[in-house]
Write a structure and sequence with these properties.
This protein is of the alpha/beta class and 461 residues long. It has 3 domains: 3-131, Rossmann fold; 148-312, 3-Layer(aba) Sandwich (Rossmann fold); 316-458, Helicase, Ruva Protein, domain 3 (Orthogonal Bundle). It has helices spanning 11-23, 34-43, 60-70, 85-93, 106-137, 148-160, 177-186, 205-213, 230-233, 249-261, 287-292, 298-304, 321-335, 345-353, 359-373, 386-395, 415-433, 438-444, 449-458, and strands at 3-7, 27-31, 48-52, 75-80, 98-101, 167-170, 195-199, 214-215, 227-228, 238-242, 263-264, 273-274, 278-283, 307-310. A 5-stranded parallel β-sheet has the order 2-1-3-4-5, sandwiched between helices. It has a 5-stranded parallel β-sheet with strand order 7-10-13-6-14. Strand 1 (3-7), helix 1 (11-23) and strand 2 form a beta-alpha-beta unit. Helix 18 (438-444) crosses helix 19 (449-458). It is elongated and about 95 Å long.
Length: 461
């Protein structure tokens, strides 16, 4: 059902519409003047606004214009007892959805209009639920981001997942390479088959060989029975080989042969068996440099990187930091049963300025720590680790004795990224102080509402 606002200086009209639409299951609030309606519109979101045009303090068209500024998604219906061509034209020009004449048939005219809006809202909510459910089922629900780089990766995953091609995922530690691999698998025809993972850097060469290819009884000391390797375990599915850049050159030769021929021979065996496995590899190393220095085989690189995907570090998609931080906050607050429902603007500003060398994994650990330490209902600056505080103090310019902002970190900084981070944090701070009212936030920042909307859209606020 819809959340409605009825605005009319005639008490009888307000009572009639309020009683009628509440009986139909809608949530209804009433304002007896334009100014009272503005206060309500600034503090909450309404699906439908039904307003009289002629009111003593403000006409309905003016209220319509205000509504389009603070709540552009609200459907606006104007009603009047004195219809004129000018008011009808103004209503349409400023975005009114309907224009209804007061009279004996007022309710008969309004009911179908409100019903249509309520049905549209229900369909929109259902579509939103289905999109979220689709993301959950396809494995993309854990991959969060609205930045252009992440949107491009989401689209690429959807495009390449149905193909049998091998994929090489590169990126710094903690960027979410395994999440990408899992999403590719779960969007593929192999989704119902195994998804097996192995960290190639976690095993010495001999043990890695037995883990991948298996062995037969008596192949070496301790081999007391036949054992299949991970290639057999992943048959029909996907084998995710993390940290492939740490694999020895000898093992690289053996892996190349398997990729070339599609056959595996267990240690100690003279027989080969066919395997049907899609390989997705990942590394945080620069493989071009490893090839140049003789530590990685070029022929294996080209076998693995049929489709390359590079995951950007978190510092290159800072606009995703608030989304990720809130996601982690909700998860850890629930698991720790703590009533923490937000992050203070100053704390968020420090999170956005920090460079996150450990990327998403480091941010996740930071929020978990903050939730555990926080005693209030919002994450404060004091709950953040010292390293983030220190980085903020060194990175954010402070005025010197002449009033000039000249503080610069020893290692330098990206001026463009730094300025964008400042702009975004001031937008968030202004919204926090204004209680989420965008027109007031724009006034605090001494800019037009149009400029505020531009920056809000730019930074995903």
């Amino acid at each position: 059902m819809a959340h409605m606002l009825i605005v009319d200086d005639e008490r009888s009209i307000c009572e009639l519409l309020e009683i009628s639409f509440r009986k139909e299951g809608h949530k209804v609030e009433v304002a007896s003047s334009g100014e009272a309606a503005k206060r309500l519109l600034a503090s909450r979101i309404f699906d439908i606004v039904v307003s009289d045009i002629c009111m003593p303090d403000m006409d309905g068209v003016e209220l319509l214009r205000y509504s389009k500024e603070v709540s552009p998604a609200s459907i606006f219906i104007l009603i009047t007892g004195v219809p004129t061509i000018d008011t009808a034209v103004s209503a349409v020009n400023f975005g009114a959805d309907r224009y209804v004449i007061k009279g004996d048939r007022l309710l008969d005219e309004l009911r179908p209009a409100v019903q249509q809006v309520a049905e549209r809202l229900a369909l929109k909510k259902e579509a939103g639920y289905l999109r979220r459910e689709l993301r959950r089922l396809t494995g993309l629900d854990h991959m969060i981001g609205t930045s252009p780089k992440m949107r491009a990766i989401f689209e690429l995953i959807q495009n390449i997942a149905p193909q049998p091609s091998r994929v090489l995922i590169t990126g710094e530690s903690g960027t979410g390479k395994e999440l990408v691999a899992r999403a590719i698998h779960e969007n593929s025809a192999r989704a119902k088959s195994p998804f097996i993972t192995i960290n190639c850097g976690a095993f010495p060469e001999t043990l890695l060989e037995s883990e991948l290819f298996g062995y037969v009884k008596g192949a070496f000391t301790g081999a007391n029975e036949n054992r299949n390797g991970l290639f057999h375990a992943a048959h029909g599915g996907t084998l995710f080989m993390d940290e492939i850049g740490n694999m020895s050159v000898t093992m690289q030769v053996k892996l190349y042969r398997v990729l070339q021929e599609g056959k595996v021979r267990a240690i100690g065996s003279t027989e080969e068996s066919d395997v049907d496995v899609r390989i997705i590899a990942a590394t945080n190393k620069d493989l071009a440099k490893e090839i140049a220095e003789g530590r990685f085989r070029e022929d294996l690189y080209y076998r693995l990187s049929v489709i390359p995907i590079h995951l950007p570090p978190l510092r290159e998609r800072r606009e995703d930091i608030p989304l990720l931080a809130r996601e982690f906050l909700g998860r850890f607050a629930k698991s720790m049963t703590k009533k923490i429902d937000g992050i203070e603007p100053e704390a968020m500003r420090r999170l956005e300025v920090y460079d996150w060398p450990g990327n998403v994994r480091e941010l996740e650990n930071t929020i978990e720590r903050a939730v555990a330490l926080e005693s209030g209902n919002r994450i404060s600056v004091d709950a953040l680790p010292e390293r983030i505080q220190k980085h903020f103090q060194e990175s954010v310019p402070h005025a010197n004795h002449n009033g000039n902002h000249t503080c610069l970190p020893q290692e330098g900084l990206s001026l463009e990224e730094h300025i964008q981070g400042l702009e975004r944090s001031y937008l968030l701070a202004a919204l926090e102080r204004s209680g989420g009212v965008r027109t007031q936030a724009a006034t605090l920042l001494k800019m037009s509402y149009r400029s505020f909307r531009h920056y809000a859209k730019k930074y995903g606020v």
